Amino acid sequence: MKLRVLAFAASAGVAIFGTASLLHAQSAAQVSSWSGVYSTAQANHGRQLFDDNCAKCHQSTLDGMDEIPALKGAHFMADWEQQSVADLMDRVHTTMPLDNPGALNADNSTDVVAYLLQQNGMPAGNTAMAAGMLNTIRIDPIKPGT
User: Fold this and answer.
1) 3-class SS at 17?
2) Which of 8, 20, 37, 59 is deepest in the core (most CB within 10 A)?
């Protein structure tokens, strides 16, 4: 009986340690949204999509109105702090626009997110974001190291 308890405790310890190590490795593998993770062309396309699908509620300035939240600034960034770009893209893709959720496909939703990153002061890079990399990008409200 003691051997079973000891074996169970050892297995549980390995599982907990392994999970913690995996989570640490995943967070360490993430890059900051300040690392030039989207292209200018992608953000420009995202702006066109935003203007056509999102501005009617969030305003072309991204300032929102009444109960519609702003999509730029400290409050928006705090809401998404330490989440992945994949989380934000999924929110855009599955819930927006409010009157037609899912109208934007995943690629177009990713382009809208590129525009949101741009409008929140994050620099463009040389490569457009792609679906397979979104989980590796962490949203940081403030540029790391500043």
Assistant:
1) helix
2) 37
Q: Is the peptide bond before 123 cis (omega within 30 degrees of 0)?
A: no
Phi, psi of 61 (to 5 degrees): -85, -5
pTM of the model: 0.81
**Which element (helix H / strand E) includes 16?**
helix 2-29
Fold type of domain 33-138: Cytochrome Bc1 Complex; Chain D, domain 2 (1.10.760)
Is-contact 34 121, C-beta < 8 A?
A: no
What does DSSP assign to residue 65? B
Spatial distance between the Cα atoms of 11 and 60, rounded to a whole number of angstroms: 55
Tell me: the pLDDT tens digits for 5-32?
Answer: 444 444 544 444 444 434 433 444 699 9
Determine the distance from the C-alpha atom of residue 137 to the mean position of all C-alpha atoms in its chain, rounded to a whole number: 7
Is residue 33 within 8 A of residue 125, CB to CB? The reply is no
**How many Å is the maximal CA-CA distance in the chain?**
68
What is the residue type of 122?
M
